[in-house]
């Protein structure tokens, strides 16, 4: 077990013990500015831009991304997925899980700091809070002040902004399942369905509660990722760390003083790294499971070092081995294994998508009789074939059967045409002379071949049953 994992696990136990005895205190995070803060802002705009923008896009006369549950169809631009395509969703989830392992082992909690929905929406709520209440000092002063008309107005404005944003978020969430135009029309004429109202309210309330009230508590106490991340860390994982050898002993000093002669390190003990931390930790105490890797402490510390004319990097992205003065290995067996597995999964997913046939076939035997004898003395089996056309276009098919010589097929319709997205039920009768049956159960194969699209075909196997031989 690595030294890094031991520290995180011990910190986890200490924090759980402390949490049972101390109530939660609101964290007032100071705004940080710098290259990492800029990256977070761009990440927020990019990710929320996707979430709020996709439902507005149109594709071939329909919403580009629509998870149509009543019709059991998922439209993703030009691709339509059905319940029969569940394997693709399974592959995507497995790839996402493997990517989490890969990037966490390589770069720590990069996901948490920049792309996690909790982080992204909390950032927006903090922007609204700062815009209404002011910076960190003003917020603390306002909360300590007794209730007044001014304080009520400010708090009401902040929460109104949060609620409006949350309600809009819930509305957009539901628009992925109900077409946006229909949802907006029904909203304005007050004819929303019960489930639509429930999910708008539920998702909006979850956004308001998690991003507005709970914030870092979701990361610290509710998110399972924070609990098992230490199992994916090793001493070569990139983490946000404080250079204790350079920074200690800490202490205040004048800008132009010779701090080394005074027996001090580079850290001026300004506590700004603590003030900008969204989870309220002191990074100088070492790696802690509450750290989400947002790098706000790096930005503010670099700014202080620049003002003091010191070298930057007192707090930086580094590895535990680097902190301990040991060489760091960026590429190591664990990274290679995770990377190869993820590459294999991605290539398999691409192959399956390329080889996907937008047809599905189910062959159901008549349950009323195993077989029957016709007036002509033939042995007959009756089937119901369900052909699902998962393409967006209609297709005409030619149906053939093989597996038994002398087998005759009767259809109730002359042409087999399946509209786009249609589930076609085809009653089929197979008949054969008993003398041509060599055994009681014989495999037979139905073949559907499109007459208007080359390469579009599917086959299904069933059994033809007859009397005992």
What does this protein structure show overall?
- Strands 8, 9, 10, 12 and 14 form a 5-stranded antiparallel beta sheet that branches. The protein has a 4-stranded antiparallel beta sheet with strand order 13-11-15-16, with no helix packed on it. Strands 3-4-5 form a 3-stranded antiparallel beta sheet, with no helix packed on it.
- Among the domains are: 33-231, no CATH class; 359-465, Sandwich (Immunoglobulin-like), CATH 2.60.40.10.
- It has helices at residues 3-19, 35-53, 86-107, 110-114, 117-133, 136-144, 149-175, 180-188, 194-214, 216-222, 224-228, 244-247, 272-275, 296-307, 320-323, 333-354; strands spanning 58-59, 62-63, 65-68, 73-76, 79-81, 239-242, 315-318, 359-365, 372-373, 378-389, 395-402, 408-411, 416-418, 423-433, 441-450, 457-465.
- It has 469 residues and is an alpha+beta fold.
- 43% of the residues lie in helices and 19% in strands.
- The chain is elongated, with a radius of gyration of 32 Å.
Question: How is the topology of this model organized?
Answer:
Blueprint: H1 3-19, H2 35-53, E1 58-59, E2 62-63, E3 65-68, E4 73-76, E5 79-81, H3 86-107, H4 110-114, H5 117-133, H6 136-144, H7 149-175, H8 180-188, H9 194-214, H10 216-222, H11 224-228, E6 239-242, H12 244-247, H13 272-275, H14 296-307, E7 315-318, H15 320-323, H16 333-354, E8 359-365, E9 372-373, E10 378-389, E11 395-402, E12 408-411, E13 416-418, E14 423-433, E15 441-450, E16 457-465
Antiparallel strand pairs: 1-2, 3-4, 4-5, 6-7, 8-10, 9-10, 10-14, 11-13, 11-15, 12-14, 15-16
Helix pairs in contact: 2-5, 3-16, 5-7, 5-9, 7-9
């Amino acid at each position: 077990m690595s030294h890094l994992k031991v520290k995180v696990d011990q910190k986890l136990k200490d924090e759980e013990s402390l949490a049972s005895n101390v109530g939660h205190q609101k964290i007032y995070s100071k705004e940080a500015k710098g290259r990492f803060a800029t990256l977070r802002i761009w990440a927020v705009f990019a990710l929320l831009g996707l979430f709020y923008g996709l439902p507005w896009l149109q594709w071939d006369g329909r919403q580009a991304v629509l998870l149509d549950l009543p019709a059991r169809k998922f439209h993703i631009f030009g691709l339509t997925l059905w319940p029969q395509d569940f394997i693709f969703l399974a592959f995507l989830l497995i790839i996402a899980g493997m990517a989490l392992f890969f990037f966490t082992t390589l770069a720590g909690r990069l996901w948490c700091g920049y792309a996690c929905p909790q982080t992204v929406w909390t950032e927006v709520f903090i922007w609204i809070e700062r815009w209404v209440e002011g910076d960190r000092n003003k917020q603390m002063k306002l909360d300590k002040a007794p209730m007044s008309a001014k304080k009520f107005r400010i708090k009401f404005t902040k929460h109104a902004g949060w609620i409006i944003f949350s309600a809009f978020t819930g509305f957009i969430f539901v628009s992925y399942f109900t077409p946006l135009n229909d949802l907006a029309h029904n909203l304005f004429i007050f004819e929303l369905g019960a489930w639509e109202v429930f999910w708008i309210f539920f998702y909006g309330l979850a956004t308001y509660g998690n991003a507005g009230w709970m914030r870092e508590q979701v990361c610290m106490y509710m998110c399972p990722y924070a609990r098992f991340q230490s199992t994916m860390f090793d001493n070569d994982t990139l983490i946000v760390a404080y250079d204790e050898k350079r920074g200690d002993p800490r202490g205040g000093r004048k800008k132009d003083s010779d701090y080394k002669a005074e027996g001090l390190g580079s850290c001026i003990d300004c506590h700004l790294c603590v003030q900008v931390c969204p989870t309220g930790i002191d990074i100088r105490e070492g790696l802690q499971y509450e750290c989400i890797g947002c790098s706000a402490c790096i930005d503010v510390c670099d700014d202080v070092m620049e003002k003091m004319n010191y070298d930057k990097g007192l707090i930086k992205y580094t590895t535990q081995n680097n902190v301990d003065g040991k060489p760091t290995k960026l590429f190591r067996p664990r990274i290679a294994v995770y990377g190869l597995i993820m590459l294999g999964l991605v290539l398999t997913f691409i192959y399956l998508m390329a080889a996907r046939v937008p047809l599905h076939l189910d062959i159901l035997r008549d349950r009323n009789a195993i077989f029957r004898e016709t007036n002509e003395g033939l042995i007959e089996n009756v089937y119901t074939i369900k052909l699902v056309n998962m393409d967006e276009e209609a297709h005409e098919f030619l149906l053939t059967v093989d597996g038994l010589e002398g087998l005759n097929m009767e259809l109730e319709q002359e042409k087999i045409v399946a509209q786009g997205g249609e589930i076609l039920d085809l009653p089929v009768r197979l008949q054969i002379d008993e003398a041509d049956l060599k055994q009681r159960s014989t495999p037979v194969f139905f073949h559907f071949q499109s007459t208007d699209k080359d390469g579009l075909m599917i086959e299904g196997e069933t059994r033809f049953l007859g009397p005992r031989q």
